[in-house]
Each structure stands twice: as C-alpha cells, then as structure tokens.
Specification:
The protein has about 140 residues and is α/β, with parallel strands linked by helices. The chain contains 3 helices and 8 strands.
Length: about 140
C-alpha cells in the first residue's frame, strides 16, 4: 500500500460493505459471473464474513454481509437508492457482455460516450452494477 498524503490520514480503501439477503447467491454471482476472487470466507460470533475482490487488487474488496432483521433486509438490493452500487472497469466490454449473456444476466442499458462505453446490469440482490470500458483520451 502507498503512504498517505498530507491531506488524508488514510493510505487505501479496504472494504465496502454490501448488505445481501442471500450470501451464497451473491458470492456465486460475484465469483462466477463477475470474476471476483474470494479473499476470505469465515465465521466469527456466529456470523459469516465473505470478502471478495478483483484479481490484482486484493487489498480492496467487498464484504457481502447478511442482512439481519427487517431493518437491514429492507434496503438490501437498494442500498444506493436505485443508483449504481459498483462501477467495474473492463478492457473489453464486448467480452463482458458475452460473459453476462452466457450466465443469463440481462443487460439493462448501454451507453456509448466520447470517453467510455458502458452497460448496466442487476446483481448483488438487485443492486445496479455498471461495467465500463474507458477510452484513451483523444490526442
């Protein structure tokens, strides 16, 4: 990890917590469809704590936390209010689209902008995920 700068005491992002109503399903989707790695999957105090991350970026990840009780179950799948929960960068968006198709994941929308191409999909209990391929800046 890199050292922090003078204007921030933090050196890196560690984990983002996502409430899910089905840990096994969310873990399988992230691993099998999106290509995340399981960084840790253990229990403590009777609770399961699966951590996932992208290859090559293992210090940064997502905790797939089981929603406990009605108060936590209510926002599961809508934690970002219908806005995207994650944006994942890809070097080949066409390959991503094909992988999603093979896994039966429906693409909800596509955009083609000057600086990127992207597609929207539902995952992690219904949360919106964007896959984006950034374009090199024009010379």
């Amino acid at each position: 990890m890199t050292a922090h700068t003078d204007d921030s005491p933090f050196s890196a992002l560690g984990r983002v917590v996502v409430l899910v109503d089905d840990q096994d399903g969310a873990l399988a989707f992230c691993r099998d469809v999106l290509g995340f790695r399981v960084l840790h999957d253990g229990t403590a105090g009777g609770h399961r704590f699966p951590h996932i991350g992208l290859p090559g970026q293992e210090p940064v990840g997502v905790w797939l936390m089981a929603a406990a009780g009605d108060r936590e179950r209510e926002p599961a799948g809508r934690q970002s209010g219908g806005r995207p929960l994650l944006v994942l960068y890809a070097s080949d968006l066409d390959a991503v689209r094909e992988r999603l198709r093979r896994h039966g994941v429906r693409v909800r929308g596509e955009r083609d902008e000057a600086d990127s191409r992207s597609l929207h999909l539902a995952g992690l209990c219904g949360n919106v995920i964007i896959a984006a391929e950034l374009r090199a800046p024009a010379a």
